[in-house]
C-alpha cells in the first residue's frame, strides 16, 4: 500500500465499521458495500484494488470481534512414576546384543592417542613424535616426512594437500595378502589427499579412508575387531604434529 492510499482508506474503513455495527443500517449492508465502496475507493485506487478485493467485497467482509481471549499458561507436565525396576527375566539386556562383546581386541589396537605418539593394546608405547603403521597384526614406527628430498618436516604441498613420497608405501608392495582398506589419520585436523599420493595407494589395490587421528584410531579398532587384522591397516600421524616443526 502506498502512502497516498492511506488517507482514502482510513475514512472509508471507519464508515464501514460504523455502518456494520449500527442497527439501523443492517438492511442497507449489501447496498452500502456494492455502491459506496465501489464508487469512492475502487475508482481512486484501481492500481491496488486487487489487493483488497477479497476482504472488502460483500461476500468476503469479516466482522470485527471485541471478545478478548483469556490467555493462560499451559499446565505443568505431569510426572508418571513407573515404580521400582522389574526383576523379571523377560526384560531385554541390551548388553547381550553386542555381538563383539566377547571378541578380544587385536593386540595392535590403539589404547591412547598421545600428543607425541601412541599406546597400543599389547603394551607397546610409541613416542618421540613418531607415527605408527599398523598392518597384518604388526606395528611399525612411521616417519613419512623423512623420505622428502629437502629434509624438511612437511606433509603438505603448496596447495595445502597431504602428500608424501611413493617410497613411504613400500611396505605394502612387499606384504601379502594386502589389506583391503587403509585408514589414514592425518593428525589433529583432516586434510585433502593429493592426487599423487591417492593414485599410488589405489594402484596397490587398496581402498582409502581419510580422517583425523583420533577418529581414525577409533575406526581402526572397530574394523580390525570386526573384519580381522589382515583386512584393515592404519597409518597414523601424532595429534601434536605441526607443519615445519614436527612434534
UniProtKB/TrEMBL annotation:
Annotated GO biological processes are: mitochondrial respiratory chain complex I assembly
Q: Which GO cellular component does the record give, naming just one?
A: mitochondrial inner membrane
Q: Tell me where it resides.
A: Mitochondrion
Q: Which InterPro entries match?
A: MTH938-like_sf, NDUF3, NDUFAF3/AAMDC
Q: Which UniProt keywords apply?
A: Mitochondrion
Name the family the entry cites.
Belongs to the NDUFAF3 family.
Q: What is this protein called?
A: NADH dehydrogenase [ubiquinone] 1 alpha subcomplex assembly factor 3
Species the sequence originates in: Erysiphe neolycopersici
Q: What is the lineage of its organism?
A: Eukaryota, Fungi, Dikarya, Ascomycota, Pezizomycotina
